[in-house]
Specification:
By secondary structure, the chain is α/β, with parallel strands linked by helices. The protein contains four helices and eight strands; from the N terminus they run αβαββββαβββα. About 10% of the residues are buried.
Length: about 190
Amino acid sequence: MVQTSVSPTELTCGLRLTASERLSFIAYDLEQTHRFYSEVLLLPLVYAETRDSLPDGAYAPHIEVRYALRDGSTLNFFVFRDEPPEPMRRLHPLRHFAFGVKDVAAVRAWKAHLLAKGVEVVGEVDHEVVMSIYFHDPNAIRLELTTNLIEFDEREAAKAQRIYEEWWTLGATEQHTPVGGHSSGS
């Protein structure tokens, strides 16, 4: 057999992540989670399954439910019969999920809808790049509804690259902050 050398560029040519297929979280109250995502955020339940163990074989009876977004992706929630295994419970407080909406008017309409449903909302926050509102689901997962205020085009990409490169020339160092109780070396 003849081996040919393939450059890293040839291997990665054309590779591009196209979308978020699913985002998964732990939920602590199945009924409240279902009500919030189906009645407040108006997402259809499209999948449910129960299992007695995790993919690694650990015994942890749970149900998985999935709610569909318009783009075909899903939000998944795992509700355990008992306490979730410790490693699965770690979620850094800055992590959140942002849903995209059409425009600023849609952000404001969603804000009114959420408030009418009794959901506490923070914002309208104008980040100059996006306009956002923030709120939490029943599992204390921070959610954001946002719309772009600028185009993320080639000009912005070039600007981002310049800013990134300048960061390192200003003497910045890599961040080594533990995330969710984990250090980068664990």
